[in-house]
Amino acid sequence: MKIAIIGAGLAGLSFALTLEKHGHSADIFEKQKEIGFDIKLAQLMTPILHGPVDNMIQFLSENHDIHLKPTTNIQKIHVHSPNESAFAEGKLGFVNMRGNHKEAYEKQLAEQLVSSRIYCNHHVTYQEISKEYSHVVLASGEPLDTEQIQPFKVEFTSTFAGATVKGNFIRNEVHTWFDTELAPKGLVYFLPHSETQASLVLVYPQYDEKMVQNKERLWTEAVNRASKTLNQTLTIEENFSIRDYVVGKCDYPRIGNTFFAGNCFGAIKPFLGFGQTGSILSGIYAAQDICGLGDYEKLCKPLYKDYQDSLALRKTVESLNNDQFDLVTKALRVKAIESIVTGRHKKTLKILSQFLKPFTK
Ligand SMILES: Cc1cc2nc3c(=O)[nH]c(=O)nc-3n(C[C@H](O)[C@H](O)[C@H](O)COP(=O)(O)OP(=O)(O)OC[C@H]3O[C@@H](n4cnc5c(N)ncnc54)[C@H](O)[C@@H]3O)c2cc1C
Description:
The protein is α/β, with parallel strands linked by helices. The chain has a single domain, classed as FAD/NAD(P)-binding domain (3-Layer(bba) Sandwich). It is built from eleven helices and 16 strands. The protein binds flavin-adenine dinucleotide.
């Protein structure tokens, strides 16, 4: 077998690592001049709402010999609506770094490779690679690359505005804001990197260009709201902006000897846009298939199922107005409801959709 991976991101590198554990190796092509995209960004990996295991770091280490060090263990997630606040407490997952940060997950994965080679500065196409290799893994993080080979159902595209902010933070507390004036059909979130640095991000879907007339005003509002909640003036260090970020899924995880992994497969859960867990798992599953240890399509089935449930929840949440967000946030202060949200019940997404239904009336 001559195996090529397009993209040294979470899916591609998890694929390569799993392959190596079973005696194979791959050539990995990465368009950037080094591992990690060109912004510094904190991301969240939480079992809340999107399992599949309580502790993904432990699960990867014990079951797949893949070792990741997060930046922070999250102990509290605050939810803010226009006039209410609530929080959930407990072992709520992890914050980790991505992109050009020295502890980015993609860099941590790349350091664990032994026999595979990474060719940085190689922007390759599926067409040229598939001529040279018997097996190709498309893990470029770009669903539009999948679309050139097979149908990819785009659910929506998103705009992000974000920055690294400086201040004095509690490093294991995360904040989220749901407010249609602040992020129409989206949200603002705050993930600390340390006691002094955090990522503040505004994200909303691009359903209709008229929905957001002035992105700069929204971003200014997001910074002001976060400053007010955190009771301090935030210093903006590095801004970033992303448009047309695709959320959707492909029809076939595997076609012949081509495997679609990570975002190219459909690893992003539509509700909050979490894609790290699905990307790593899809990479592992694709490698298990090549090594004769499973069937990629079958292994991916739970990911597809979660995708659908997450999409249904998103649609429900998108239909809420600000008064309804206030009611839901107030309800989250009731312990029993908080425990549904943070619970590890297999049907959490479905239960939550049901729970939210009365609020949408
Ligand atoms: C702003 C933002 C915030 C997010 N926050 C979260 C979060 O908090 N939690 C979460 O779980 N998920 C989050 N996500 C989603 C998550 O980042 C992705 O789902 C995940 O990184 C996808 O992994 P991947 O391996 O498919 O792609 P990536 O990790 O993006 O890797 C793809 C790699 O392929 C390379 N590449 C692309 N094209 C080519 C080519 N033609 N040739 C060679 N190399 C190529 C790229 O440079 C990149 O290194 C966020 C996404 C964004 C944009």
